[in-house]
Amino acid sequence: MTSLVRWIFGLDQVPQIYFGPTAATVALRKSTRPDDTEQVSLRELVERRCPSLHDAFRPAWWLPNGHLQTVYCTIGDFSQVDKVDYERTLLRTIDGGTIGLDFAPNGSQPHIKENTPVIVVLHGLTGGSHESYVRAILAPACAPPEQGGLGYRAVVVNYRGCAGVPLTTPQLYSAGHTDDIRTALLYIASIYPEAPLLGIGFSLGANVLTRYLAQEGDQSRLMAACMIGCPWDLLANSNRLGATWLGRELYSKALGTNLKNLLRKHLATFEAHPEAEVSKRIPDLLQQSRPRLYTFDDTITCIAGGSSPPFPFRSANDYYIWASSHHVLSEVQVPCLVLNTGDDPLISVLPVDEGPEQLNPWIVFGVTKGGGHLGWFEEGSRPAQPRRWIRRPVLEWLKTMGEDVVLPERHPRPLQKKDGWIMQVGRDDIGCRVDSKGGKIIGAEGEEGLLAGL
């Protein structure tokens, strides 16, 4: 009877997997001997090593649509599941900004080999390492193999002003600004020079990750990546969001209010820089009780969402056009798993809507019929604690890229150390130094006053 009900209501949802007209080939290890490999296409690799991508997503019966899946991301209690504790390092950037790197597992781990893969995570709009969607992946990824985990290291890159990271200049972050992840990777590569770096981005972080990979090409420090819930065409999806009552009054206001509350936590920084254009705009924004996301971006992000140039932009529309990632996906040159949902209330325009003909050979693009925004909740072992479907395919992808595939040789720009700074050769504006190190971060604890999960 349960199977019949699920079929009638369409609750069994096998993902649609898209590949480009040609799929890139990679060297797959056949044994422990370094030279014992075979060339396989990404399509065949997914068939053999990522079987969960072909398993049906079965949403929890009480979360049957994208709205409920998305809302549960914000109201669900995830404090007792997927526990991950971190050790924080604060990096000072060349322009005086601060980025927070949260390392897992925390503390000294001498048993982990120097060439163990490192997962580099970019979180969503106002999130951080505490987010349940981040911990859903990192808890099993960083657990020892004897406990059923991958035994990998991970580093969550917390944006300026997010997750308790101080805001030390009036510059914020945005969906298009990539220099902070580029800077963070300098430091991560310097302390793990033998380890392959694997990227994973969620929502806004997926957009930043896509743009970074496209800009770097074969010079990327990340060997492979996974983009989850990426917003792609920011202008088109913003217009779609504003075209419905729920989009305008629920989701857009929730996101905009989250950003406003985050901004409020750092008023002292803006008060110390009254000459900055963004500082002049903040009072008007704070007078709005629940600003929409577009209002925040049109007032604040388009001015202070990154360095100059290209910031400032004249409007949110100009910023959205520049920051979108759908038009640069073709320039990515590392294997990428992309996952979106067909009922995401925030993202309704996807690069594969018109078919996969233009897809990059390095892209595996999966779309589930349901799952909402960063949800994918299935029934778990306990009714009140669903599990996330994405956990399985993402872990299979990370394991395959970290252990089973001989990834193409990359040619990242060399590092240099200069007057205590780690810098990228040829870029005087890209560099960092350690500001502080060693603080313990409890992964399940977010910031008061902010709506988690998005």
UniProtKB/TrEMBL annotation:
It comes from the Eukaryota. Belongs to the AB hydrolase superfamily. AB hydrolase 4 family. The active site is at residues 203, 344, 373. This is AB hydrolase-1 domain-containing protein. Pfam families: Abhydrolase_1. The lineage of its organism: Eukaryota, Fungi, Dikarya, Basidiomycota, Agaricomycotina. Residues 117-348 form the AB hydrolase-1 domain. InterPro entries: AB_hydrolase_1 (IPR000073), AB_hydrolase_4_sf (IPR050960), AB_hydrolase_fold (IPR029058), ABHD4 (IPR012020). GO terms for molecular function: acetylesterase activity; monoacylglycerol lipase activity. GO terms for biological process: medium-chain fatty acid biosynthetic process; medium-chain fatty acid catabolic process.
